[in-house]
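S.,

Sequence below, as promised.
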Amino acid sequence: GGCRGPRDGCTIIMALTNRLPGRTAPCPWPPARGGLPTGRVRAPGSRVRSGVTLTRCVLDSNDSAPLRRALKDKSNPFWQFTGEDASKSTVFGDPSSFAARETAERDFFAKQITPPARPPPPPPPPAQKARPRNGVKNGFVPDFLRSKKPPEKPQPAEVAQPHLSFQAEPAPPTAKAPSPPASTRGQRPILRMLLEPSFFQSGLLDFLYPKPAAPPPPPRPINGDGAMRAPAPAAPAVNGGGPLELVGSSKWQGEDVRLSNSRQHNERSGQWHHDHLYGAARTLVEGDSGAASWRQKLHVVQQVLNDGNIDNIDSQALATCAVYLYWVSTGAIMCREDGSHYRPNHHAMAAQSIFHVLERISGSRYGAEGESARLALRRLHPHLPSFTAEFTQSVPLTRIRDIAHGKGDRDGRCREERQEIKHTIQNKLHRCAGPEDLIATEKMLAKLTAPGTDYPEEFVNEFKIFYKELKEFFNASSIADRLEALVPHLNDEARRDAESFLHEKRAFDSTQSPSKAQLLTLLSLLSQARGSIVGNIPHIHEVAQQQQARLSEIGLEEYSFVLLSQLANALEKVEVNERGARWSSEVLMATAYASQQLAVSGLRGEESAAISNEASSLAQRMQEGSGNMSELMLQSQAVADRAQRLAEDFCSAIVDLYEGPVSALASGFGIDERLQQLYSESEIRSSVTFQMSRLASLALITLRQQSGAGAFDTLVQGEVVGTLRILENLEAAVDVGEDIVALLLNASGDEEVTNARIKGVILAHDLPHLSHLALRARQQGLPLVACSWADEGALSEVRGMEGRPVRLVASQNDVQVVESADTAVYTQETGHSQVVDHYGDEEYPVAEPSVVDTSCAGQLLREEDVTLELGGAKANACRELSSLAETAPRAAQFYTPRGASLPYGSMEAALQQVQAYEFFEEALSELDSADIDFLEDPCARVRDIVELAGPSAPLVLSLQQYFGRDKALIVRSSANVEDLKGMSGAGLHDSIANVPAGNAAALSGAIKRVWASLFTKRAVASRRSAGVPQGNACMAVWIQELVPAEVSFILMSRNPINGNPDEVYVELAPGLGETLASGATRGSPWRMSIDVATNTVTMLAFASFSSGFTGGEMGRSEGMGSSITDYSQHFLNTDTNARNALGVHLAGIAKFLEQRMGGPQDIEGALDANGNVWIVQARPQP
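The prediction came back faster than expected:
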């Protein structure tokens, strides 16, 4: 169409290319000398025979008047071109039938003879620049012969630049066709293709003369700029190599970016609804409405970041900016030219300003908010342009200008492509750069490297170099390219580590099927290199290289995801019966590397590092074969459980972080719902935590399968029938009107089972056997089981029974949940079960509150002066323990902390002193009559009145003098309705740890809180269910020195799991006893049973608690802190002899106290840093 003097066949090619409105396909014939074609042509946009539409006519000649006049003539019903020889001209009229048209086509094709190749034109003189010509490469095959896609609706055309062109998409990726032999180069392969018999069977004629069109497909989703999004094109094959990775197109969600040989004017459209938004989302949406270009959008992000003022920037604002820039960079929010002329260096300077703010935020945030901020920051950095020196200079990215002007195109065969490069990429990039320029570049590269093409190698290579430079500008380079550029700017250690990783990666990439050992080696070097780079970032002087270092370590984390995925795939392929110690050690090492990535990112740094240390240490012991294999497997289960919890926590954190920003921006910009749903999911599934969760689940399932253990663990044995109901927590059982077996999704371990219609409980997660909830369930005879590992299959099976009668059978070795035809098992007269001790023949009815003596109210009772009537069962038991500690044999030796009591009546005396006792009695009387479902407000009123009073100043002074002002204390409850046989009341009332004795206000406040805890909703409901009137409950306070516990324990002198009186059962946890007793910390304790006859210690489980409660800053601040536990060096994990010796010693203490205190005992104690055993409490075992 643009040829000067068309040769035979030009007419039909023009007709064929015109069948694809809006597409570009250059004429495959070289230009010939001669004049312009003569004749008349239908006007643009008008239809000619069989629906052929001339959508756009662009001339390539100075003498174009005859054709221009022809274009203005709209009366001629034919489209006619006449070549040099009028006798060879072809006129397409309107044949009377399809058969006639088909015959004419076949005759025409059959008569075409491929003309001989012409010698290549001589090179231009060196002193004179060759004029670009509209030549084309040899071997070109138009896209309309590659695709049978129905023609799109024609668009209005415009007469613009001199050249007849129709836009075409690059061919789909296929195997590269062999190059034609040298003798055929320069000929017209298109005609050879047309003359092949297979051509007529290929469906092209059906394409030229289509049948009635089928109904159009549903429209593609609309992006925020109002344009349809096209699916990302597949990566083409590299000319002479493997597949070419198009990093931008693989994530592109915006409208199709088209190559054009003229400047495109795309109108901006979209929606910007910000009236209902606030904060960062409102600023971004409102700002974007006036920010068409990428440069302007970067300035909007700067506005959110307050131009460097970081005090008002929270994690939600950062997450909102991360989502915004992600959608901008992927085209969901499109960029348009803003009418100004700003080279890419302006974008680079804006990025530098933003980077400064992000790094300052990263170093100034701590705790949960800091972790959320770092999560968002790591998603912000990759979507900023680079601001290295080559991009901040006044005229960056000049190579594309040279390419457009002919660099590498010596014979002028790429003139068409150079025009497209000039208008679609060069001018656009230097005028108003945006993410769409990377897509356009990738589209052109796909065209230049498509199979079967024969573009000049020098030209293609120049364009590839430019593509690499453009990726660097958009920070889309590969991790290898980025690291190689960064290495010279690193210190010696980081440089060595980075080079070691790159060397191993090159060897790894050359291996077709890498082994698990190679994957682990590369992960090890990656972790080392990444850690070194992170440590080196603050010491890099050039801020541009700081950005590259930051992006390198983020890229290394993303690459570790790929390696971990490959490793998990390889591990999953191993048969279950072949998964031995070697396999387990590989899973553990993979888990260690995954958690190490999180630690380096500063995300749960201590916890992630502890998991990494524990997993790697355990893997090494397995490889060496040191230790009991069954115990090593139990430790593997513990570390996998801990890693699984960490991964789940991160998933929840990601959802919580992005849910609000995604929803707000989507509603503001009109982003479709699919993109909203994909964002958080993709953040989770592309994170290292996803692979860590996958590895942990694989380990847990394998261990359970190999051991034959079920998914559920029995805490309280029994058999019940009821309708299965799924509850979020026990408080959701308020409106239950039938006997149920409750599947609880969440339980802290402190709950009270007050609803008599709950006959059994199934927990969806693990829980310590001796938590408060387990003790109360055991006391009530309520069967309780917990899912001890991540078995979604078992839980799903139980969930499937919701609403149907089920039978829960919980025995020591098995748990069954089956459908049942029974409707009840409990007697209808009482409506609830009798409290039964499952570990003997004796039944204990609910005990009456102990007798109260208030004669010493308001006084301080020393430990030796305490009695049951004055200070309660807990205080009295502690006094007895102090006495027994002095007479205990060496095999049962223990210590007790010093204590004192504020006896019964002290609270009431304090209320009378402030003249609030009458109000207290009035509010207390309402508790017995209030509906049990609406106890919260009456209980709160009583507590408010109690906290009006407090211990007298002389009493507080006496306490300080008794203990000493430098001591840390624990203030505990000692009510007359706890620590009794048949009614333990464990955990119902508050204990305040680490109260500084020297702080009178803190000491007084802790005492008031313990008094008030007698009237919490849980405590009141517990007494009502036990038939104890609220007025009969009385609170004394027991105060002890706080034991600095390294390990705490709960010791049962009779095994509560199987009821064996000759076995002692103990659970241990790091830190204070609250870690075990409350159940508020997720994880499992060390569990062991000790046969007292043989002193045989059997490990049942190893600890997986992430942290343990501590006294914080001992004696300086009230309340408890927590510290992360690293089990890799803990003696209970690593020293079998010390662990067994401790178990035997605890068993001796348990049996000694059982004998001296008149029955099986529930004992709480601690182990200090010197290995001394302290007993802080004992009560009758429920």
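The CA atoms of residues 365 and 573 lie 42 Å apart.

Coffee later?
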